[in-house]
Amino acid sequence: MTVYTQNGNGLLIPGVCGQGMHLGLDGFRLIYVCIAVFMWAVSGVFSGEYMAHYEKRGRYYRFFWATFAATVGVFLSADLYTTFIFFEIMSFTSYVWVAFDEKKESLKAAQTYLAIAVIGGMVMLMGLFLLYDQFGTLEMDALGPLAGDVLARGPGAERLRLYTAGGLLLFGFGAKAGCFPLHIWLPRAHPAAPAPASALLSGILTKAGVFGIIYVSCILFAGDKAWGELIAGLGFATMFIGALLALFSTNLKRTLACSSISQIGFILAGISTAVLLENEGLGNALAVHGAFLHMISHSLIKLVLFLCAGVVYMNLHELEFNAIRGFGRGKPALLFCFLMGALGIAGIPLWNGYISKTLLHEGIVEYTAAIGAAGLWKWSEGLFLLSGGMTVAYMLKLFVMLFVDRNPERQREFDAMTASYMKMPARAALIAAAVPLPALGALPHLTMDRLAAMGAGFFGLSEYGHAVSYFSLENLKGGLITVGIGAALYLGVVRTFMIKKEAGGPVYVDRWPSWLDLEYAVYRPALTLLTAVCAVLCRAMDHLADGVIVLARRTTHSQLPEPATHKEGNWLAHFFGSLADGSVFLWDKLTGRMELYGKRRTAVSRLLNKEVRIKYIGRLVEESFSFGLMLFCIGLCATLGYLLWVLVA
Amino acid sequence: MNNMILAVPVLLPVIGGGSILFSERRSRGGRRLLSPERFAGCLVLLNSLIVAAILLIPGARGEGLVLFRLFANLTVMFRIDRMGSVFAGLVAFLWPLATLYSFEYMKHENRKDTFFAFYVMTYGITMGIAFAGNLTTLYLFYEMLTLVTFPLVLFPLSREAVRASRTYLYFSIGGAAFAFIGLVFVMSFSVTGTTAFQPGGMLNPETAAGSRDILLFVYVLAFFGFGVKAAVFPCHVWLPRATVAPTPVTALLHAVAVVKSGAFAILRFTYFNYGAGFVRGSWAQWVIMAAALATILFGSTMAVREVHWKRRLAYSTISNLSYILFGAALMTPFGLAASLSHLTAHAFMKICSFFCAGAVMHQTGKTYIYELDGLGRRMPVTFACLLTASLSLMGIPLFAGFISKWNLCRAAFLYGDQYADGPGGWLVYAGVAVILYSALMTGIYMFSVLIRAYTPVHEGQAQEDPAQTASDPGWMMLVPLLIFAAVILLIGLHSGPLMGLLTAIGGEAG
């Protein structure tokens, strides 16, 4: 019995979990496993101080490392079955992170997280079945050419099946990635988890979902126009909505979580342009590199930003802007780290975000030019720059709130914390996480380009493409426009609309209408309605069996002794009366109104009364003289009619 | 045909259990040599060892054993083939563990000898069903199963127990009447003149082809007849009510022995009497598939709405049994293999869940879901086993439930590929969607219990609650739980040998 086999293609462990596991390694996977190791290491060191005041540390660390194992398993998988297995495990072990502090809001957020994870998993499983059935294999390398064949030459029914399978997989992976309409769990789940865990949730677990989307888009549906446009629509929507939510938020971690949604949107937009450029026959190297580098940049940036949020929380146990404002004043280490992250995500030249955003921008521009700015694509560049500007705006909002504002009540207390707020291991970890960001950004050709070249193989890219001069005037212009839009948004929208001048000083206000919540307005009511309808139907079906038996017992199979009052009367009245009684009883049971049982008058007695009355009236009529005369007249009329008929006919 | 050893696992428990009933009660100072529990436990263990010997020693099972002749060709006979050995092995593994559990559970009850007597007798009868070599024997032991489990359901002697046992009896006897019609038709239309099981069916092709519609109608009747024990939709009513019985009864009988006997009987009747080829593609197949799917939907949805824990698990059983019946309704070799895999996996998952519920009831007396807050901390081992069973029921990879769900859905898709879709072909794909919907509902109703158990008690709850002093039960109840959880994990991780055996069974019979 082979326990495992190793060949050029990776590690195959047959027989485990039914179909066996297949793990593989290539540039992309190697880079992401290294990033996972780095992020877990930094978070782990940081957790030492962060978790010091929590009780259930053992549980935290157990699930911390379990999620690490599962996430690395997802990234190393070379077979969609293996991906699914590790994906499910990852969802369940990270649930514990979200539910960790067991407060009511955390448990609710965890409930949403688990529901989305489970539903996404089931839908993904359905997609896997369809794929397996159509192609007979789930090996990632093998599926690409097979799917390409079907898309190019297959009959309509086969292509429809492939699209359905792809759509289901997109649902499953997109739910984890936080893609538009399934992003509802992110804004609540990431703040609920402890900060080091939030960093990992945002930075790398979402990328596990993106990993799947990349595979489906760039390998399965390589060069497919319809698919590319679908991803583009979702990507741009996610990009914009995430940024909008982040701009309006007044909670530190919630802002960062919504920012993650937005950055995932950027990555999806990059993937879509990669697919569409290939469809147009142009080289998509730029878009591919942009998407990949933005994934890496975002992982590293979110690590830093969430750990900074963790620093704030572990000292203040607060995350609302009005409570934490001014905390960062006079804390150079925190300032440095936060600034690195903020500049990175905003796409300022010389930081890593700028490199990846430039590439994404170029990809979008190239595609829009190739199709002659047709349809909605003429707005795409504008939307991209606007979302970038909003990113700058909300990071500026955070920066000003933390490091420039003064806290009306507690500023003195904050200023006193300069030495004690972050001990050495955590400080070292945070700075170690922050330093790569400018390093990558300042030396793009040495670092980022090489990383992109290593990782691009996973996207199906074989040729390299031309080298990009990142600091050329064209590209710098894009960056500066973004900054300009951001500054304008901040001064024009945030400072005027979201900050209210109150008696004690300016206060941050959450202007987002509370009813505008996709989860509570749409998803939960729909799910509740579905289960309620099903439950009513099922309960009716359940009582139907009983009801039929009761109906029979009361009518045709009636064994109950007749009550003494019904001695006289016609059998018809009894029969119809008990039939009516039984039907009414059944109706009451079906609609659940059993409290009326016993309070209704039986139909039998009513019918008997009617029958007595009918008989009485009948007797009256029959015994009267006018009745006889009437009969005589009817007879005469009948005779007359007959004679006329005989004569005429 | 006279391999006498085959009668031993059937008759030994019946006679031994009966002897507990008739043994003299020595009261007033006399002490019995062997208490009913110990005797029952030894008997069950001995019987399982004998069964293990029969199954594992090659050649021990021989050609079969004819117990007696009814008339002409009709005999009551035992013969173990591979499918029977799977069921027999499963039952033989589970019964001693369940008896061990019931020692502690029933420690403080009266009338223990009645309980253990019938518990042991049920073991023998279930073995009879597993060993049955023809439909007559299966039917005989099927009826006897009803009679011998009836006192167990009646055991608490409360009003609900009386009503539940009456419902159980009426439904079972009614169902057996319909099954009898099936028995008669199989006998009349068989090739051999007997009702012996033959992989691939034993109907006479010429005569059967002539009366195909009648035979299909009788098939549907017999399906619902045997389906009473397998809790198919209209005939499921007795199962939630039967949860008033003590937990060892509900768990073993109503999650493993009785209901699996029903499913086993349907599988035997379909694949070994009628033959899958006869029913496949006909209207009868769509009818039974629709009934199975309706039951899955019904069971899962009602379980979400139910607040009594054991009744919730009963609805879950109803739903899961129809997974097995859905696999059976596919009428393909892999369909049979998939339904047998779910039969095995579900037995372990459900018995583990019921035993956890029983452990909680035994330690704290709580039976409703909303009373379980915080118990997960106080009874960690119990709830860890419940977590394993729940993840498995949901179909999460690494656990047995995933293997069987994957196989069922695979079988459904393979059916869609191999056979041109008839008028009801879409039912097969609807079946996959229904199974996934049911998995979601399973997640909801199993996880709501677990989340309640693991979240802490909210402030303001009464502190003199017995839940505060609850702890894990003794080793006699914990060891079976741990063994079941370990088996669930084992099947989930390494299902190769089991699936190989089941696929071979499916291949010869489908």
Task: Give a structural overview.
The complex is a heterodimer of chains A (649) and B (510). With 649 residues, chain A is mainly alpha-helical. Chain A is built from 24 helices and five strands. In chain A, strand 2 (10-13) and strand 3 form a beta hairpin. Chain A is elongated. In chain A, 48% of the residues are buried. Chain B is mostly helical and 510 residues long. Chain B has a domain at 280-510. Helices cover 71% and strands 2% of the residues of chain B. Chain B has helices at 8-22, 36-56, 82-105, 112-131, 135-153, 159-189, 205-210, 212-227, 238-241, 247-274, 276-279, 283-305, 309-329, 333-364, 375-378, 380-394, 400-418, 426-454, 475-493, 496-509, and strands at 65-71, 74-78. In chain B, strand 1 (65-71) and strand 2 form a beta hairpin. In chain B, helix 12 runs parallel beside helix 18 (426-454). The longest helix of chain B is centred in the last third of the chain and has 32 residues, at 333-364. The model of chain B has no long low-confidence stretch (mean pLDDT 88). At the A-B interface, helix 3, helix 4 and helix 21 of A face helix 12, helix 17 and helix 18 of B.
What's the short story on this structure?
Chain A has helices at residues 27-50, 57-76, 80-98, 104-135, 140-153, 156-177, 186-192, 195-220, 225-248, 252-279, 285-316, 321-324, 332-346, 352-370, 380-404, 411-415, 424-434, 436-442, 448-455, 473-498, 518-554, 571-591, 603-622, 625-648, and strands at residues 5-7, 10-13, 21-23, 499-502, 505-508.
Largest inter-chain interface?
A-B, 35 and 43 residues
Specify Rg of chain A, calculated over alpha carbons: 36 Å
- The proportion of residues forming helix of chain B, as a percent range, comes to over 70%
State the total count of DSSP E strands of chain A: 5
Task: Work out the strand percent of chain B.
Answer: under 5%
| Arithmetic mean of pLDDT of chain A | 85
Secondary structure tally: strands of chain B: 2
Largest sheet of chain B: 2 strands, antiparallel
Q: What is the count of helical runs of chain B?
A: 20
Structural class of chain A: mainly alpha
Give me the oligomer status: heterodimer
Unreliable residue stretches of chain B: none
Average pLDDT score of chain B? 88
